[in-house]
Amino acid sequence: MKYNFDEIIDRKNTNSLKYDFAIQRGMSPDLLPMWVADMDFKTAPEITDELKKAVDHGIFGYSEGREDYFNALSNWMEKNYHFHVKRNWLIKTPGVVFALAMAVKAFTKLNDKVLIQQPVYYPFKEVIEDNGRILVNNSLKNVDGHYEIDFDDFERKITDNDVKLFLLCNPHNPVGRVWTREELEQIGEICLKHNVLVVSDEIHGDFIYPGFTHTSFASISKELEEITIVCTAPSKTFNLAGLQISNIFIPNRDLRRKFRHQVNAAGYSQLNSLGLVACQAAYEKGEEWLNELKKYLLANVEFVRDYLKENIPSVELINPEGTYLLWLDFRKLGLDNQELEDLIIKRSKLWLDSGAIFGKDGEGYQRINIACPRKILEKALNNLKEGVNSLS
After folding, report:
1. Which distant-in-sequence residues (6+ apart) come within 8 Å of 131 by Cβ?
2. In this structure, how many other beta carbons lie within 10 angstroms of the beta carbon of residue 17?
3. Cα(83)–Cα(8) distance, rounded to whole angstroms?
4. pLDDT category of residue 298 using cuts at 50, 70 and 90
5. Phi/psi at 137 (nearest 5 deg)?
6. Gyration radius (Cα) of the chain, Å
7. Neighbours of 289 (CB within 10 A)
8. Which DSSP symbol is given to 231?
């Protein structure tokens, strides 16, 4: 490979949330952290080179993206997802979670019902309940290790609760599903029928494994385009989360106006100047790096699958179709929530994301971040093997 993803980089004492804040988050500092969704790889050097030029210039005043910034975004969306975006659709925010919160405030009132599909990325729940709205859950179903949507329940939850807004995770974090076009069309048909707006979080859309295809929800039809807010960002793809930049596409003018009003009301305007530089460089020059990264991540997935089968058969991998976050099923061990946490933290010396934080449907599972050098991943699995063996 042109890029070295085996390089182990010491991230301690760099203000890293992942490595430097264990004590503040109630964890022991000797745990191996495999939780928060950033990568232990340096970003593409092509991005770093552009950031160095900006730093050398030495002025970090108020900045805005120009035509070449939008062209970088539109070319990426067109080439990779056949999603034809227009410049006036774009609203930039400091992150997708911020955008989710703005959408909840823009398109619902206090005590309105908002639908999600747990187990799902836990900020979905937070932005609903912290803004005084009521969460409604259409639980995903684990059918022989493959998560599926219960469409009858999906529609019933909408009609029974007068749901106004649906937060879609596409691809899904943490279960790793890349929703098919047919599944998304069925979701869209129900939402159109019942006048439900859709916020589609597509931040993991660049991490799709062979045999699967990411479909941007708004790209399916003109009708769905009119009810959809599409949330994208280079942060997961190129390990740029700390630069706080996301690109939100809202084709419907009225929805865009309401969304922009909430962003303005929050007191937010221009983006991080270095985030703008990094985002444009990523989409213009980062594709070769990303393609190699995806090959490395796929090998990591295969390593985990083989390791579990050979060494810890009681722990099952939910086969991922996308993302670098793996969903592990520990239910065969017969542990309750606290016992499972003790296994991970005390016996295995690991810091993972407990499945319970993704909703009740996540109990008995753990999420592990495999975007790291193979040696770190191997150490984590060895720790887990020792922990599981200590139960007997």
Report:
1. 101, 104, 105
2. 16
3. 36
4. very high
5. -115, 125
6. 21
7. 23
8. E
What are the structure tokens assigned to 205, written together? Answer: 């859309």
Q: Which residue has the tokens 């050098």?
A: 373
How far does CA 253 lie from the centroid of its chain? 26
On average, the pLDDT of the chain sits at 98
**Which residue in 97, 99, 94, 91 sits closest to 249, CA to CA?**
91
The pTM (predicted TM-score) of the whole model is 0.97
**What's 165's DSSP letter?**
E
Model pLDDT for residues 95-111, shown as the tens digit of each residue: 999 999 999 999 999 99
Tell me the sheet residues that pair with 351.
Answer: 33
What is the pLDDT confidence band of residue 1, given thresholds at 50, 70 and 90?
confident
Taking the C-alpha atoms of residue 13 and residue 167, their distance in angstroms, rounded to an integer, is: 36
- The conformation of residue 315, written as its DSSP 8-state character, comes to S
Per the CB < 8 A criterion, the answer to whether 53 and 280 are in contact is no
> Are the beta carbons of 231 and 248 closer than 8 angstroms?
yes
Task: Supply the angle between the helices 287-311 and 374-389 in degrees, to the nearest 10.
Answer: 20
Q: Are 200 and 228 spatial neighbours (Cβ–Cβ below 8 Å)?
A: yes
